[in-house]
Write a structure and sequence with these properties.
- This protein is mainly alpha-helical.
- Helices cover 75% and strands 0% of the residues.
- It is built from six helices and no strands.
- The longest helix has 24 residues, at 2-25.
- The N and C termini lie far apart (28 Å).
- 18% of the residues are buried.
Amino acid sequence: MLYRSWPLLHGRKVFARNLRRQRHSKRLSQEALAHEASVDRTYISALERGVCGATIDMIDKLAKVLEVEPAVLLDRRSETDAQ
């Protein structure tokens, strides 16, 4: 069953990297993003570290705050750009 958990963790890593990249491009702090999304700053931190996963609703909410399509936060191609 280990093979089934790998894509989930990989997906979290992709989301975490894209979330951080988009937040930085908008020059927002974690605290400012959290405030605009009505969540705690520690939750944004956990998402950016890949410690927890976001629901579809939360991905949509964060994308709206960041003024991007939700797909941008899930785009695996962005991962190879950072390496």
